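Why should sequence recovery work at all? Because a backbone constrains its sequence more than one might expect. Tight turns favour small or flexible residues, buried strands favour hydrophobic ones, and helices have their own preferences. The token representation captures these environments compactly. In the example below, the structure is given first.
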């Protein structure tokens, strides 16, 4: 990397995002000295908007769906010391710009989680999740996963760390419920292909369970949660999640208790497991079911 390379490169993958792209680019303008946009087949003005904002636009063959490969193509072209990853329907909170600048001034092998506020025009509800969107530009930092692509594992395997930051991004996702359902089913099909190709990668199962849950296919989501427990028997979070399904979505109180107690045994003092066990005790009392706790 050249001595005069930019500090931050904004890397994006896009397709037909002419309605959102300009606002996204404007939100990151103060911090991104370089912009790399990988276009996966736009038929609208998206590439022209990107180019007009000084971005290097790279056409990418997406006939085989692989979001990680598209993101990695952007990383290959980036010359900045740090990578800022945004989607076209996301906005970097302007109050967070100085935080990004301060983090990028550090010489650390750390990936930073941003708080993402997710909202939809067809609902007043908002949810917040945490996604790694700022990380050092290093050759081994590459995304994996054809859908629900992640950089986390690559950073950790390269000796890096993952930390939460106070940076916030706003995400306005598809308002059309039917469009979201079609996307869920599309992702499920691809995740199943990935799982068949690499059965030992249990991280794909986490995303599969989430897709079934969003579709309210709770029987399928529960079955996947049970599969995750079998794949990761020493993971307390896996047992906790299975317990939630057995408590709430596919009720089986005895199995739920076993799940929560196993999670607590693997992680003594696990607050979520203790909370669910307390809730379970109330449910058992209401139904007249009494279980003996494990020693």
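From this structural description, the recovered sequence reads:
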């Amino acid at each position: 990397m050249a001595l005069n390379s930019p500090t931050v490169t904004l890397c994006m993958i896009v397709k037909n995002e002419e309605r959102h792209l300009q606002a996204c680019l404007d939100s990151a303008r103060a911090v991104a000295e370089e912009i790399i946009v990988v276009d996966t087949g736009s038929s609208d003005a998206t590439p022209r908007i990107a180019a007009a904002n000084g971005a290097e636009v790279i056409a990418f063959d997406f006939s085989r769906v692989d979001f990680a490969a598209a993101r990695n193509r952007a990383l290959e072209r980036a010359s900045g010391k740090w990578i800022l990853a945004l989607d076209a329907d996301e906005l970097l909170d302007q109050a967070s710009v100085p935080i990004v600048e301060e983090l990028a001034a550090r010489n650390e092998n750390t990936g930073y989680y941003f708080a993402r506020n997710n909202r939809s025009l067809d609902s007043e509800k908002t949810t917040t999740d945490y996604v790694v969107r700022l990380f050092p530009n290093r050759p081994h930092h590459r995304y994996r996963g054809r859908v629900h692509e992640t950089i986390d594992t690559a950073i950790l395997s390269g000796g890096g760390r993952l930390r939460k930051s106070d940076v916030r991004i706003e995400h306005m996702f598809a308002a059309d419920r039917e469009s979201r359902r079609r996307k869920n089913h599309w992702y499920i099909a691809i995740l199943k292909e990935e799982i068949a190709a690499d059965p030992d990668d249990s991280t794909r199962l986490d995303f599969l369970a989430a897709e079934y849950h969003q579709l309210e296919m709770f029987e399928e989501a529960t079955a996947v949660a049970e599969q995750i427990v079998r794949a990761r028997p020493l993971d307390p979070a896996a047992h906790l999640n299975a317990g939630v399904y057995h408590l709430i979505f596919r009720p089986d109180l005895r199995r739920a208790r076993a799940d929560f107690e196993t999670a607590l045994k693997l992680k003594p003092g696990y607050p979520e497991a203790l909370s669910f066990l307390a809730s379970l005790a109330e449910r058992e009392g209401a139904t007249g079911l009494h279980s003996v706790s494990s020693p």
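A few observations help interpret the result. The mean pLDDT is 92.
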